[in-house]
Specification:
Length: 202
């Protein structure tokens, strides 16, 4: 007989663009401690044991692939971390905040909604580099603590994002952004006045 010490729930198994490395995000239940251990492993070949890259990574976050790197979002969780990794320990960086959203893989950018004080939910842009992710607010669309952006949109071939937002004056209408505050503006007030052309589920 044998003693079962742990049970592995393999949540995601992915390979990179050139299939040189695989990434495993796993939820491991440890029977000795009665705890779930959330771990990410890199697998470089079929004969070596998987290499532990990071622990306490959000198990349900979106995984984005950008070339030979993965971005693991923590969806705004303050309990779990996000991760930027190329599948090796040396190429892995644990990050406190990795938002999910719309990916521009060509420019290694993630457009997403982030809630902060005192701005509420607004449009943020995360730029992925080899060493980390820089996330900045694009614009406080509805000035003050009210939320101007609730997520979603569409990426255009020129890298701009079109989306619906509410600036507190024109209602929820069509906006566009090039990633800068100056380049983020109302594209069309489709329903004139303060009424909204888009519902909150748009």
């Amino acid at each position: 007989g044998y003693t079962l010490n742990a049970y592995l729930y393999g949540r995601n198994l992915l390979t990179n663009a050139d299939h040189s490395v695989a990434l495993l995000r796993a939820d491991i239940y440890n029977y000795n401690t009665s705890q779930h251990e959330l771990k990410v492993f890199g697998i470089s070949n079929a004969t070596s044991a998987p290499e532990l890259l990071a622990q306490n990574i959000y198990p349900y976050g979106t995984i984005y692939q950008m070339g030979n790197k993965w971005v693991l979002s923590n969806e705004g969780s303050t309990t779990f971390s996000g991760l930027l990794t190329d599948g090796t320990l040396a190429g892995s960086t644990v990050l406190a905040n990795v938002p999910s959203g719309i990916v521009d893989a060509a420019n290694q950018v993630i457009w997403g909604r982030v809630s902060t004080v005192p701005y509420g939910n607004e449009l943020f842009r995360s730029v992925v580099s080899d060493t980390g992710i820089t996330t900045t607010m694009v614009k406080d669309i509805w000035p003050g603590s009210s939320s101007g952006y609730q997520g979603g949109g569409a990426l255009l071939p020129n890298g701009k994002l079109i989306f619906s937002a509410n600036d507190g004056v024109n209602g929820r209408e069509l906006w566009s952004s090039d990633g800068t505050e100056a380049g983020t503006s109302l594209l069309a007030d489709l329903y004139g006045g303060s009424d909204s052309a888009f519902g909150w589920s748009s």
